[in-house]
Amino acid sequence: APPTAGLAGKTKILAVIKADAYGHGMLPVAKVLVQEKVDFIGLSNLTEGVALRQTGIRTPVLLFETTLPEQAKDIVDYDLTPTVCNLELARALDKYARQQGRLVDIHVKVDTGMGRLGVWHEEALDFIKKLSRLRNLRIQGICTHFPSADTDRAFTQKQIRQLSMLVGQLKRSGLNIPSVHAANSMGLVGYPNKILNLARPGLMLYGLYPRPELEKKIKLRSVMSVHSKIIFLKRIQKGRSISYGRTFIARRPMTVATLPIGYSDGYLRGLSGKADVLIGGRRCPVLGRVTMDQIVVDVSKIKNPR
Fold it and tell me: Which one from 18, 73, 95, 129 is the annotated catalytic residue?
């Protein structure tokens, strides 16, 4: 099962693998999720959705970003589920689906405080009623987004109440929408709620904690490690400098190793002088600035480093 399944209980999982699965690789992560029978996959946009479909994966895919009306054809043809928050897109989808004799599943984005995409929650009831009259659309989900689940509990709880009120209004109007979702990783852990029956973990899928203190409550394991090789060893004497800006000056004789990895490979420049690498199971500090394609580390305490 997906790594968050134990936390979610009976809540369905929409695994977020947008932005190339947070840099982990969309396709390999998607293949694992399909094997684990994840309920839904979440992606940013149409380009990502088409790329995934072209690999043969048929798991339901929700596109988080609203799309343009002229993209309706690709959404329908590639069997993707769009997020809808304007009538122009909804009508374009309905028209093309009707021409093809198809039904299109959609989710409706409601803004309860993010201030980005979505129809304002006060206007959502009337908006969804209008969508319900478009016969070739099926409203399968309603969602909102937490801007500060990790820092503002009161505001997040208010958002949940607003979404819950809307769901109640919809039910009284005869509109029962199957999926209600808002919870990202922090929302899943910190705000269990019966109204939310679909969770959208992102960070936690990859073993990352949305807040450091959660490490005491739940156990996650990082799904990625980065490996390199030592390409050069040298001894340096006290007073010698390393890398650009000469930000590191040796205070003693040292043995240092150069590794062929840098910020062009995604090893952040902000880690300069702050990070360690593991060599033979021992921590070796990064010395000086991370450069485009190389770093230098202290291996003085390691016998025969390699």
Answer: 18
